[in-house]
Amino acid sequence: MQLFLNTYGTFLQKKDGMFQVKIDEVKKVISPKKISSIVISNSATISTDAIQLALDNNIDIVFLDNFGNPIGRVWFPRLGSTTFIRRRLLEIDMKDEGLPIIKEWILTKAQNQLDFIKKLLSKRDRDEEEFAKLLESMEVTIGKIKAVNAPLSVSDNTIMAYEGNISKQYFKALSLLIPDKFTFSGRSTRPALDPFNAVLNYSYGVLYSKIEKALLIAGLDPFIGLLHKDNYNKKSLVFDFIEPYRIFCDEPVFYLFSRHKLPIEGFVDSGKGILLNDECKKTIILEITNFFDDTIRYRNKNTKRVDTILADAHAFANWLIGKREDY
Q1: Euclidean distance between CA atoms 55 and 60, whole angstroms
Q2: pLDDT tens digit sequence for 106-165
Q3: Domain range 2-78, CATH class
Q4: Is 86-320 CATH 1.20.120.920?
């Protein structure tokens, strides 16, 4: 289990070979054998003897800021589950065995995009011919990704090109479906050239932090990527792993525009791109947080949508070290 210390004033210490969590005058004792990682945020405190107890038991410690963003980590100095996970991920990269994993993540993203467009069209009175070619192009390219069988070192650029083609058709369809005053021409990031992309970029930023947090808690190294290759200070695995979950932002962002929840004055043209004012950011955060926290049926359980990210990160980590037969 993960031990989350996220209440102001929480104190974690060692007592008689056990962890003791103290919140005000309430104390709880937990065996190290029951804990796989410790996550600390919101001004919680951990003693040095508790840190040593965690290291002695190969328990990973992750520190988060008040916004839930990872800011640091304590690694144990010998081979443990987290080190083993990192080594296995490196082995997959070095042996060029990452194609099935990357294909699954990219195909899930692409199918999410295709399904979302179909869902929107089913609720709108639009000429089907207007979107027929876009949908056909997406479906054909999905088939091409499925057919890729060359090692990732050879096929990485091909896969990224196919993924880019699907996304191009996807965002073209979204632009045709949002209110006319917010139509846009493709994706733009730094800077965003239109309100839709400005909101989407901001939302993706929130999602990136949740992806990184999930990877860290699961014992995965955000810097060891498979498709997005290693660069100095580039969190390559975050860019790989985020793909199936981009829909968690796409849907609420689209609905913000289609339901006219964002006033036009919320967007500021800087001359170089579109910026968001504080009120606009608050509205976006509320919308995507509510969407993240929606309960869905996942792996035969009722769980928050955002918690599926951590569940999948753990599944991937356990598959890497042989605790699961498949991912």
Answers
A1: 7
A2: 999 999 999 999 999 998 887 778 899 999 999 999 999 999 999 999 999 999 999 999
A3: alpha beta
A4: yes
